[in-house]
Every structure is written in C-alpha cells, then in structure tokens.
C-alpha cells in the first residue's frame, strides 16, 4: 500500500517547445469566467489569450495567470481570426452546431486557435463562418450545457493530452 | 467549406448504462466551486456527489444540476470512503503527491469514486491514506495549480472519454 504524501505546487513539467495553441474569446458576460479560463491557460503554459469586448482580468481569479500569459483585447474577433488563419492557425470553435466533431475523436493540429463563444449566445455566426472545424464535448444530462470556463478547460486539457510536450 | 449553424442545448447523448463514477468532495471553501462541479457532474450524467462540511449548492451556478444529481452531505468523508471501498469502488484522488500517476496515462476503473480536496489544503492525509490511486493533471506554468472546479471537470472529462457509453 502506497503512502501518499501531498506535494502542493510541485515543480511544473517542462515543455520540449513552446505551445502553438492560442485561445480567442468572444465578449464574455462574466470576467470571472474569462479570468478562470486565464488561470487554466497559464497553468498549461499557453502563451496568449485574445479577448474581446469589455474584457477585464480579475487577478484574484486568474491567480497570476495574467502575468505569464499575453492577454490582447480586441474590439471584435473577425479581423484577428482572419489574420491568424493567414498565419497558419487552424481555427477551431468549441460549440454545439449541426456539424461539430466529437472532441473525443478529434485530432488537433499543433497550430490551433481555439475559439470560445460567450456564455449566453455561444459563437457568433460571423465568427462561425471563419472556422475550419468545430468540436463539441458530449453532454449526457441537464442543464445540457457546460459552464464556459469548465468547457474551455476540458478542451485545453484534450489539446495538451495530445501535445504533452508542446 | 462547411457552414456551421449553432444548435444550442442539443438533445443529450444517451448512455448504454448508468455511470458508475461518483464524486466525493472534501469541505470546500467556496460553494461556487462545489456548485460549478455539480453542473459538470450533471451534464455528464454522473448520478451522485458526496459533499461534506457546510456544503450548500447554489442553484444559479449549478444550473439545475442539483435536481438531477443526488447530493449527499456528510459531516466527514472517511467513513463514507470506507463504505464505498467495501462496495467495490476504486478510490481515486485528484492531487499532487509524491506518487501520483499522470492522468494522461491512467486507465480508470468503471466503478470509481473520484476524491476532490479543498481549494487551499487539497486532500486531507486521513483521506489520502484511504485512496487506491492518486492522479494528477500536469502543470506547465503559473500559478502551478488549477482551480478545483476546472480540475475536477478535466478529470471527469477524462473518465467520460474512457467510458463514453457509461
């Protein structure tokens, strides 16, 4: 029988190379959700978050994530997404749509921008039209939709599972 | 080029059989975190959460999750964990310890109780001593620890990825 002893705030794992995933968020209703996403992003050493609208990071929720991650706030996403696509990023939305792929079966490309919609409205049609792929996390029960920060964390988990070394 | 059209709150996926995973939470500092976990648990059709201490579910955060999931509140976890172990549940903690397995390489047993520690203190030594396995999610950056609701969501995501049909 193993005796488990806690090691809080262990030395982080080292990446073999810098991650090439970015996260782009539509204007969020809640800066708590945005900041919560930022904490996960930072723990996973994802270099950059593109936020939009009245985005403001709450340090207490992001827990220093905002000091490690570059947070760029834009008025709207479409011009940024177009530029990222020209730079070779695959634009992947996290959304329930008519043609979403189950995330369990999806192979991410390393150079990916994960696009996140707002809590109430999801991804705007103008941004949906720019996406290469849309993935969704299966839902088996009420309320039939995940919290946006939890869902984003799961999608980033999946990406990092596929690219544990960056 | 696909035209993606949103389908919010799609018909949920059906399980082939009821899930055998439970979640047991040590006393949380924040009922927001507990309620956020409950929302994910409910979306994943996990039948039961064992909470402890002054646990109280906030409906607005759990978003009806509390109506679908059985929430049992106990004064302390060790007697419950012992009983679950006797009932054939594998007790798996989510924690950074000296002997945690990387969750990317971990094969869950179907009949599992996932044990979650509190935000500040993690899993108590008394509960750690009862666990069969401990898994951890790798961390590559600051603040070197994930939010408890996001981390729990990722671990449940991994379990459901391994058992998509229940």
Key features of this structure:
homodimer, 166 residues, alpha/beta, Alpha/beta knot, 7 strands
In short:
2 copies of one chain form a homodimer. Helix content of chain A is 30%, strand content 19%. The first copy, chain A, is built from 6 helices and 7 strands.
Task: Describe it.
2 copies of one chain form a homodimer. The termini of chain A are far apart. Helix content of chain A is 30%, strand content 19%. In chain A, strands 3-2-1-6-4-7-5 form a 7-stranded parallel sheet. Chain A is built from 6 helices and 7 strands. Chain A has a single domain, classed as SPOUT methyltransferase, trefoil knot domain (Alpha/beta knot). Chain A has 166 residues and is α/β, with parallel strands linked by helices. At the A-B interface, helix 1, helix 3 and helix 6 of A face helix 1, helix 3 and helix 6 of B.
